[in-house]
Amino acid sequence: MNHHAHLTSFCLFLTVLLAAAAVPAQTVFFDPAVTSPLAKEFTVVLAVAGPDPVMGVDLVFTYDPTVVRLDAVDAGTFFTGSGFDYQFWNDPYVPAGTVHVSAAQLGSAAPATGSLAVFRFYALDVGVSPLYFLSLTVRDGANQDMQAEHSTGDRIIIDEAIPTDDLSFGHVKALYR
Q1: 3-state secondary structure string, 108-166?
Q2: What is the rounded distance in angstroms from the CA atom of residue 109 to the CA atom of residue 140?
Q3: In the predicted model, is pLDDT for residue 21 greater than 90?
């Protein structure tokens, strides 16, 4: 093979590689990416967006359990609003600070964009709780793994102590005695 043939083969390979890399992937992300709640109880949504229909997801992420407590995980409108049956499982056996969600449409893929899950948190202390993905699998309409990305740099910021209870007038008077 001469140099011209090697160069042509390399250019063809590079073109195919760049075309494959340019294909937009499904992206799973927290919405908002930075949450700074004003109340002790608040929610963070996990969403998916991209060009292709999605049948299911399996993901694990972590948060700081000294800053926030996870009280509940609910299926998002991606599943509840699709009109299809779905399976939604939040692993109850993971350690505090870890979330494992596995969910799927049953029988059909859903549109490519929507809210996958709603996480109900409770602020425990002032600080920053990074939301860090450990693993992510997204399945296409044929229930095969598809190219997917996840957001980075997501976090919950508890800037200041959030009051837990309204004080009655009697409680306020007792503070000044």
Answers
A1: CCECCCEEEEEEEEEECCCEEEECEEEEEEEECCCCCEECEEECCCCEEEECCCCCCCC
A2: 7
A3: no
